[in-house]
Design a protein that fits this description.
22% helix; PmbA/TldD fold; eight-stranded mixed beta sheet; 480 residues; alpha+beta
């Protein structure tokens, strides 16, 4: 397959490209879902092909074919160069690429239990069993699912990089919905999307879906009669790590994608409130805020050995001691922004999509506190967890988030259950209000398998290491 990729690159160069790279990919997926004790769907898919990028002057060209044969690969290389040449008819400054040493290597994710070796009957029994258990403990609607992705890719560039990877990802989710006279309430586990990583079936066993099914069903039923979250202009707010993962994803991860900052994504997904001249000086949050993008974290969903430009995975500081110091970037965006090196954050959904800047494992480094100590230190506040809804503007600045569950905190103790909790803020003010962070024991590598971006839209897999955190003076609840 490496030779096939090399032939595609050679064809692009022969057709006039000044730089070219090619990815041959084989992708295998499995998805199973159950509802109320019955398996509803089982989907398995396999696909393969080659995608080629060619650079001429100011323009990229991209072409892909669902065929990994030699003739198809060479044709893809020729067509990618033709697209790039046609794009140069619109004048522009020649595009430079941030320097990167040519590498040769292999990388594979750590898999202790091959998910493909687990029988469909066992997988089905698991999902059927947990949905029946949720029904028995108060859920009117009980759903559960698992997903597996198995990706092999071979990358070759005209600069001499040749790398191959085998990435296995899997995870599971379940939810219980209770239906009342005028409302429904839902509890999800491990989170709204479940939990996923670059690991094998051992991850799903560790989640212990059967052990948590009764609890989340009972909580969904209990929320029907819980008090509504009060509306307060300023409250101490504690967020659980699952909600923190989405907070990071939406208000930090997307905001620090360099293609957004440069305006390349403006037509579809919006831009960013961050401005390049302020890189290295802008205060993003309190001194407790330290964000990294690190594709080297073992088992996290945004981990890999090399990005889709062949750049080796490496950690990148995004926010250090509250100051914005880095961005998610590729070789072209890094060069345009004057960065010394690509952030290694370019990936595509498949061989038939052009690589673009995507989040890796964008996460919050832990502090020295704990959820228990945050509650003890809070005289009057609200603890919220598990995302239910979100809304954020196209600059990733103003936002409102809703959670599935909340608890009132009074006198350092968790009190009454609260339903429909929400909070709203402006990104730098919100992160500036951060004053307590959970410690290493609570650091969880949450996986988000459904991040949408680009036209045509690509679904990316991202990771978000997170801990519980406390914020002071946050507006909560809904004003009429």
């Amino acid at each position: 397959m490496e030779d096939i990729a090399a032939q595609a690159v050679e064809a692009a160069l022969a057709a006039g490209a000044t730089y070219a790279d090619a990815r041959v990919m084989e992708i295998r997926t499995e998805a199973m879902s159950a509802r109320n004790g019955v398996i509803e769907a089982l989907d398995r898919e396999e696909r393969a092909g080659v995608g080629v990028r060619a650079l001429i002057g100011s323009s990229w060209g991209f072409f892909s074919v669902p065929d990994d044969g030699s003739a198809a690969a060479r044709r893809a290389g020729e067509q990618a160069a033709a697209v790039a040449r046609a794009s140069t008819l619109v004048p522009g400054v020649d595009l430079a690429l941030a320097p990167e040493k040519a590498v040769t290597g292999h990388w594979s994710s750590d898999v202790r239990e091959d998910p493909w070796a687990v029988g469909l009957a066992e997988k089905g029994d698991l999902l059927e069993g947990v949905t029946r258990a949720m029904r028995e403990h108060g859920a009117d609607l009980a759903e559960a699912s698992h997903r597996i992705w198995d990706t092999r890719k071979w990358f070759v560039s005209s600069e001499g990089t040749r790398v191959d990877q085998h990435i296995v990802e899997c995870g599971a989710a379940m939810s219980a919905t209770a239906i009342g006279e005028n409302e429904t309430q839902r509890r999800s586990y491990p989170g709204i999307r479940g939990q996923y990583g670059t690991r094998g079936w051992e991850l799903i066993r560790e989640l212990d879906l059967p052990g948590n099914a009764p609890r989340i069903a009972a909580e969904a039923r209990e929320l029907l009669t819980a008090d509504v979250c009060p509306s307060l202009d300023a409250s101490d707010l504690i967020l659980g790590s699952e909600q923190m993962a989405l907070q990071i994803h939406e208000s930090v991860g997307h905001a620090t994608e360099l293609d957004r900052i440069l305006g390349w994504e403006a037509a579809f997904a919006g831009t960013s409130w961050l401005e390049l001249p302020k890189l290295g000086s802008l205060r993003f949050g309190s001194e407790l805020m330290n964000i990294t993008a690190d594709a080297t974290l073992p088992g996290a969903l945004g981990s890999f050995g090399y990005d889709d430009e062949g750049t080796p995975a490496h950690p990148v500081d995004i926010v250090r001691d509250g100051i914005w110091v880095g961005a998610l970037s590729g070789r072209d965006s890094a060069a345009l922004a004057g960065l010394e090196r690509s952030g290694g954050a370019v990936r595509s959904e498949g061989f038939d999509r052009i690589p673009m800047v995507r989040m890796t494992n964008v996460g919050l480094l832990p502090g020295s506190d704990s959820l228990a100590s945050m509650i003890e230190a809070t005289d009057d506040g609200i603890f919220m967890d598990t995302n239910r809804s979100w809304s954020i503007d196209d600059k990733r600045l103003n936002f409102q988030f809703g959670c599935e569950i909340g608890w009132e905190i009074k006198g350092g103790k968790r009190g009454r259950l609260l339903k429909n909790p929400t909070y709203t803020a402006i990104s730098p003010k919100f992160w500036g209000a951060l004053d307590m962070l959970g410690g290493p024991d609570e650091w969880t590598f949450w996986g988000t398998p459904n991040c949408g971006k680009g036209q045509p839209q690509q679904i990316g897999h991202t990771g978000h290491p997170a801990v519980p955190a406390r914020f002071r003076g946050i507006r909560v609840g809904v004003r009429g």
